[in-house]
Design a protein that fits this description.
The complex is a heterotetramer, with two copies of chain A and two copies of chain C. Chain A is globular, with a radius of gyration of 19 Å. In chain A, the strands form three sheets. A seven-stranded mixed β-sheet of chain A has the order 3-2-4-5-7-6-12, with helices on both faces. By secondary structure, chain A is an alpha/beta fold. Chain A has eleven helices and 14 strands. Chain C contains twelve helices and ten strands. The longest helix of chain C is centred in the N-terminal third of the chain and has 26 residues, at 24-49. Classes of the chains: A alpha/beta, C alpha/beta. Chains in contact: A-B, A-C, A-D, B-C, B-D, C-D. At the A-B interface, helix 4, helix 5 and helix 9 of A face helix 4, helix 5 and helix 9 of B. Bound molecules: thiamine diphosphate (TPP) (2 copies) and magnesium ion (2 copies). Residues 163-165, 193, 195-196 of chain C line the site of one magnesium ion (MG).
Chain lengths: 325, 325, 353, 353
Amino acid sequence: MKITYREALNQAMCEEMERDNRVFLMGEEVAEYNGAYKVSQGMLEKFGPKRVIDTPITELGFAGLGVGASMAGLRPIIEFMTWNFAILALDQIVNAAAKMKYMSGGQYSCPMVFRGAGGSAARVGSQHSQALENWMANVPGLKVVMPSNPADAKGLLKAAIRDNDTVCFIENEINYGDVGEVPDGEYIIPLGKADVKRPGKDVTIVAHSRMTGFALEAAAELAKQGIDAEVIDPRTIRPLDEATILGSVAKTNRCVVVEEGWRFAGIGAEISARIMEKGFDDLDAPVARVTGKDVPMAYAANLERMTLPSVAEIVEAARVVTNRA
Amino acid sequence: MKITYREALNQAMCEEMERDNRVFLMGEEVAEYNGAYKVSQGMLEKFGPKRVIDTPITELGFAGLGVGASMAGLRPIIEFMTWNFAILALDQIVNAAAKMKYMSGGQYSCPMVFRGAGGSAARVGSQHSQALENWMANVPGLKVVMPSNPADAKGLLKAAIRDNDTVCFIENEINYGDVGEVPDGEYIIPLGKADVKRPGKDVTIVAHSRMTGFALEAAAELAKQGIDAEVIDPRTIRPLDEATILGSVAKTNRCVVVEEGWRFAGIGAEISARIMEKGFDDLDAPVARVTGKDVPMAYAANLERMTLPSVAEIVEAARVVTNRA
Amino acid sequence: MSAKQKQAAKSAKGLEFEGRSYDVDTLHAMHDSMLFIRRFEEKAGQLYGLKKIGGFCHLCNGQEAVCVGMEHAAQPTDYMMTSYRDHGHILARGSDPTAVMAELLGRAGGIVKGKGGSMHMFDIDKNFAGGNGIVGEQVPIGLGFGFSSWYKDDGRVTMCIMGDGGINQGGVYESFNMAALWKLPIVFVIENNQYAMGTALNRASAETHLFKRGISFKIPGMQIDGMDVLAVEKHMTEALEHARSGEGPILVEAVTYRYRGHSMSDPATYRTREEVDEWRTGRDPIARLQQQMIDAGLATEEHFKEKDKEIKKEVNTVAKDAEAQPEPDPSELWTDVYSDPIEGAYPYPGKVG
Amino acid sequence: MSAKQKQAAKSAKGLEFEGRSYDVDTLHAMHDSMLFIRRFEEKAGQLYGLKKIGGFCHLCNGQEAVCVGMEHAAQPTDYMMTSYRDHGHILARGSDPTAVMAELLGRAGGIVKGKGGSMHMFDIDKNFAGGNGIVGEQVPIGLGFGFSSWYKDDGRVTMCIMGDGGINQGGVYESFNMAALWKLPIVFVIENNQYAMGTALNRASAETHLFKRGISFKIPGMQIDGMDVLAVEKHMTEALEHARSGEGPILVEAVTYRYRGHSMSDPATYRTREEVDEWRTGRDPIARLQQQMIDAGLATEEHFKEKDKEIKKEVNTVAKDAEAQPEPDPSELWTDVYSDPIEGAYPYPGKVG
Ligand SMILES: Cc1ncc(C[n+]2csc(CCOP(=O)(O)OP(=O)(O)O)c2C)c(N)n1
Ligand SMILES: Cc1ncc(C[n+]2csc(CCOP(=O)(O)OP(=O)(O)O)c2C)c(N)n1
Ligand SMILES: [Mg+2]
Ligand SMILES: [Mg+2]
């Protein structure tokens, strides 16, 4: 059945809430408003005000509420309207949720999902346009998941809700409207497994979330230029299925890593460093990174376009690593 | 004159406060208690309660106070008792201070210093033992400085206070008592300049903050084994003086990067990725990383020791990249 | 004719509100400023509909009395900062409307060079310090401006504005405590428009009398009619005096209403037509002042009709001039990141990679 | 003999406090528990001095009545969480003292396997949910436990404990608002020992009557004598009933005093000898209960002397047994990071790099 990325997320939550009444959804505007981005459309009606709960604008407080509720045996889904606002809640995510099991010698754990849109939307400026997955992925105790299409959105969110650890589930607002084939009912994608979105032999392009689409466009363009790119979407950022990436690089000997976020100590840096450590001898050229520019996001349309990675930049990087530039 | 790292920081602040009455120090226990770690010893007496100010335990609030005060023309030094607590204040650092100049089209800026101890102390457990420099270094608009000895502590802090941008100045509690030769009076180390702490020709070891000391110990041990290591302390993490690192690698052709923090998307990942991008052909072996283990910090002495990078691990990594293992 | 209007009518040369009198020029200035903001926002709404303005766009129609009354009570040297709902406030402060409109359009001549957009307006010459997109973030920042006035003893007061949703953020209470503890010269203004996006006040706040939110920190508060520009001016004057006199911070809850959705993309189905009409037609701050001035013989309907035409023309010119501007120069991408960029260190200023 | 003691003496079989009577066994239980905590902390202090305990070590000497009175008022199924000053509370809850001491020593048999230390004690069987090192962090977490009881309707109440310094954290007020808005069964307990490290209450809080800190959120509060175990038990019983009955959260400010420094490394020079003595000798909760029981003919000085010897012996045994334990097995470094570790994905469970 063809549905949107938004509907796929909604389906995943509804199915899991029907299956397990310990699961509840809490966040700003998730209930009566049906979600700021309509991801929770109809859920209040379906599950009632006890399981779909609007909160005051207090991210630190309701993130902590989720942590405590998960310790007490519930399975919270805490929605951040966007991950930009999660910065206010980071202490509860990083110092409480991520460390609780370890600190308590295994007695308590925090099986919960923090979810919402990450990265930039369109024209919303610097405070509403940042990709923080590298911060979350830095932290042991957390898992970080980022779907790039509707089917993955459903399968990964269901897996995240069932997972017994704290999962930071980072969606993308611009993808919410994307339509794709999504299996109904029980459809689960195991965490920690990358997906080859396009097979190819000349160059490996690793890209996650919205950038996966950019990478596929770039691959199509490269094909016209006679360069056969393999596009890999890690889907789970932490822990990372590097075997799939390293396997591809062993075949292509060339790699471009794409991310929307800032470059310094980003996801691309980690993947590049891992290829250095584990695939050095496979490389015929240094791994290249295509990332967001090292500036805050501007509002003006032209500056915004320049700030984000572009298909053209990915194509160019692929040409460079394949010595076609 | 030989003084401690702690006294060097105190000297830097006192000298800058004497020079510029817009500079003030604010934080928990900085005034009447003379600092939780005595870094501000005697400053209340010297400068009075208007310029050395004890705060309630409200990191987000007083970090924001610093941001506003800097926009209004003052030059705040905001002390976090440790950087662990700065996670609560991150929104003001990342969304306000770092972006203010850009968002306001250059009208407002935030010339201020956020400072305090980062990394692990001794036996203080998971919530008090984390290295966040990679999060701060990820963000355009911020500068990140981490001194590894008393002289650098003074010279870099004076430069940070005079700098017209927001500087995250990350000290190390275990280094506070270290003694070293520190020039009196006007001594300023420009930001963005690395320092070769030990010249060598066989392998480059890059390490910052407390790890610089570990790297030097490792170099001494390696020397006994006939391996001549060059130890580079970046001192400023963002922006990074990569020229000095790349120059060294061009000479040694081998590199080990050491950091106390977690590996995934850390500083080591960035440095490794940069060497990949800019020094690929100079490398005779893949760059190796020695980092904190991918677990929260435990309290037990033996587990704590295992979690931190060790001199032995650095030695071993250097032997591997020099094909001596 | 309401009691208030009767009382007002008493003084022929102007109007009175609770013993404070306003001369004709002041009244016209307040009216024209409110009407200008109203028409400016309507124009912004149109341009958004035409997709010439992008992203989020939060209009303040209905809340003009708060913007204008506050500004008239304040000194130009007093500081002000607010949330993303900032067009009305920066216009009331006297910033160039063409620059504000150009900002909405993302143009080179925007008040922040097109870098901030609707949510991030700043004007340092008018002591307007933003324009914040993170709910509540401006409150600790306002605390810092207040601290700076205390530190410099410069006699300025900071007007730190937040919404009925924003007031729940923890940083607000950290700021209340420090402001009260150190008696900083700050007026915390709560624009209680009764909704935070789709969330009605009583669904988000245990204590819905928001002026009481400072009690736990010994901060006095008052609730005022945010639909009456004279009430706002009068009570903000008192509040500013309180803060300026060194007595410490004070809370002002201005009860108001936003006519439009939360942002341009919000259909606002969570409110009844009746409720909106009651406020829009029953309590509109502009219509109210016009009626008071007419009743007092200070102006005629014709005058206001003329003035409205004039202002609409002005706003059209503003929009045309703003639209005529080019987008920011691409080189602007790399400016304003650092005051002291460090050449030769990575990431390199102005370079990719 | 004070009025209160006279009143107490009235009932021969026990003691009375404001109409609530306590039988001899209960009184002995409370006394012994307080004394045990006192001696345990002293031992911990010694072991710290011998460098057998590392890091931070925050003792609760002087605050025992709060720990014990609260626990006696609560049900075993009620939840409790606090800050890093947690030894007294977890012992009062009935956790194994040897495991608590072993934790302080970083041993394999520690209550959290040596992974948490002094600041991070947990005992899920006793519904003791930590032990938090970040000031105020336990408050939103406590909100979540309270939410879970509301969600499950399990009749439990959460006792969420914070200090007079911690109460200033913003997350506390976000939690107050949600707890009051949804009427969650939570008793917020403020251990007001009058100092946050070296900062006296009045230097950190604009409103020093901490029980009033909930007023702005419609949360009722009471101030109680935290040096009188009977007062704590009586009023905590009322507070717990209030929360359990569905009336929503309530604040209890227990005024108390810590005899030792903030942590073992704090010389506490910010307080006068006189002040410390006034509390230590004048208002000690253990001496006070002993005197009351003796006056009421419920016990003799000899008994308490004997009991003290007994407890000291017990504590020595606890310490000896704990010290006899090995450090955690090195393999423990890699356990308890994830409940569902993912094999074959990086970072690899249990491996470096
Ligand atoms: C920290 C944070 N959380 C959530 C949001 C999303 N958001 C933007 S405006 C808003 C409602 C704010 O309402 P209120 O404070 O009453 O101001 P108003 O819009 O009514 O002027 C929300 C939830 C945000 N921008 N920042
Ligand atoms: C967020 C945070 N900021 C600062 C600290 C350092 N710190 C530890 S305890 C403490 C004082 C807390 O005082 P109070 O809340 O009164 O508790 P008490 O120690 O008196 O029991 C401070 C500032 C911390 N642990 N966490
Ligand atoms: Mg509102
Ligand atoms: Mg205290």
